[in-house]
Amino acid sequence: MTILDPSTRSTAQQIREALATLRAADLPTHGGRTLSYVYDSGIAEADAIGREAVAAFGATNGLDPTAFPSLTAMETDLVGIARELLHGPEASVGVATSGGTESLILAVLAARESRPDVEAPRLVAPSTVHAAIHKAGHLLGVALDLVPVVPGSYRADPAAMASAITDDTVLVVASAPSYAHGVVDPVEPVAAAAAQRGVRCHVDACIGGWVLPFLDGVSPWDFAVPGVTSVSVDLHKYAYAPKGVSLLLHRDPDLRRGHFFAAADWPGYTVLNTTLQSTKSGGPLAAAWAVVHAIGLDRYAELAVVARAATQEVADAVAAIDGLEVVVPPDSTLLALRTDGSCDVFTIADEMKDRGWLVQPQMGFAGEAATLHLSLCAATAPGVPDLVADLAAATGQARGRGPVQVDPQLAAAAGQIDPSGLDDATLDGLLAIAGLGGEGGAVTLPDRMAEVNALLDAAPPRLREALLTAVLDRLTR
Ligand SMILES: Cc1ncc(COP(=O)(O)O)c(C=O)c1O
Q: How far is the CA of 239 from the centre of ligand 1 (A)?
């Protein structure tokens, strides 16, 4: 869609209007009703100074720290703050990355590079580990040994993880907390098992690392735990910074070296990178630095407690909603909800959307039914009574409709399809069957997604990946 003519200049006013039109189709980033993707502190001054910093540093380039020392100064300051929060020892070091996925890729890269003796490197992680670890393994040629979590607790099984470690294991991963269920893995025994085999242990605290340090009663999960070699924490999540910044901390500089990159053997400047990006805008880093100082650790502590209390309040209230339940008591500010089978989560998600909330459907996994994901932030807290009332009403509506029925023949057929190498025409046909087909191979996303989601849920994960990749492909043609 082109809404401005690129052959001639547009006025600032036209551009503002076009941007406003584009944004109007998006989910709200503020107000606390979008319960995934975005995080709102509710502190307008912090947002304002973050925007100012993005604007002021957007054109700076983190490619060369000697040209833009401001960026190194801010990065080092943020790493120092995180080190205090995460009980990092004096020797610990870190980098700022573009997000959680990049932090995890770098943790896997550094681990792989530290073991040139291993020909076919592998990593051990609980089955609930974030998919970004799958991506890291895929990109870096590190095979994943995913170990089922303990049934009912949804936390890593340390003994099973210990048994999964082999001579080829270069990294063990745990989550604090996991995205899908919001529970903290037992990091102590997992890290001990890794250390015993001389293997690194990364804690993915991308979503919890700026919340858990302020909560009581959380089992140890950071550098205070012996054997934890690196921790990732995203500033663009619960540090409430604009998008584009995560931190990856290592217990000592040696552990970090493997993700540094240098290339002098070409005719241009010597490329020296600490992260995946080479040229990188200083905007997100400066914004994160500004927001972290605008909020301050004392207020982060308050925000974390507020978001945690809101999460608990929702969890308690869900217990009184017929047909809906919490999958596992949460350790942090994330909730997974499921139904008792009298309705399905996909209809509830649609009903919530009609009421102005985004709750994120999570497909069934390992024999467990689909769930709804809610990440609660500080700005959601004042709206908890409305959230609970709307969840009750949405579940009531969904129960009235009953579970979405997927044609059993269609579900059986989906199980037979080999998702590898499906051509475009077949994918178009499958998307049409799934209710996503549009004119001339385009994609239309229906307003109500329950039927589509139920069908996707019935499809094996590999087919779901192929179909949704086809959707993405068609949306971006
Ligand atoms: C635990 C965890 N790890 C990694 C990620 C990936 O982070 P990003 O989306 O910033 O790449 C997320 C995102 O939600 C997460 O929750």
A: 14
